[in-house]
Design brief:
Number of strands: 6
Radius of gyration: 14 Å
Strand content: 25-35%
Structural class: alpha/beta
Largest sheet: 6 strands, mixed
Number of helices: 5
Helix content: 40-55%
Distance between the termini: 8 Å
Shape: globular
Oligomer: single chain
């Protein structure tokens, strides 16, 4: 299945100030609630942390990739957050980029896993990570749409 067969929105937040993983995830969830992606912020955050408890989502290169499939998500969205300063994600691992994936519980064909796998593959490439670290908001959004939403298939 191609990603462009389902609606996946991209949101970008640059220069976000946060000092903990909890703070940044709550800020993202608040923004998702304000924009209508999430119907119950508290329950959505609980779903994200329930997943985080199973297996921490630090993937290296100062990147955190939290995700949740929840009944409180109205439509699929990937949020890219570039923090002002790195924060401790788990143990001694620091994160400067956060990619939060929120997918409705009713999403078909393991959509959240497909998004997660695609992101993980893209983030392995140093040139892609460098672009994410330096582009402005519009540039990051454009890059992500080209890589995730408008892909031609795997």
């Amino acid at each position: 299945m191609k990603m462009n067969e389902v609606p996946v929105s991209i949101e970008v937040q640059l220069q976000v100030h946060a000092t903990t993983k909890e703070e940044v995830i709550n800020k993202i969830a608040d923004n998702l609630r304000e924009k209508g992606y999430v119907t119950n912020q508290k329950q959505f955050v609980q779903a994200v942390f329930a997943r985080e408890t199973e297996l921490p989502t630090f993937i290296g290169h100062e990147i955190g990739l939290p995700h949740a499939q929840s009944e409180f998500v109205k439509s699929a969205v990937v949020v890219i957050v570039r923090l002002q300063e790195p924060i401790i994600w788990n143990e001694d691992n620091k994160v400067k980029l956060v990619f939060l994936i929120a997918v409705p519980k009713i999403a078909k064909n393991n959509l959240h896993l497909k998004i997660l796998a695609k992101l993980a593959r893209m983030l392995m490439h140093e040139d892609f990570r460098e672009k994410l670290a330096t582009l402005n908001e519009a540039g990051v959004k454009d890059l992500m749409y080209k890589q995730i939403v408008e892909e031609k298939g795997d």
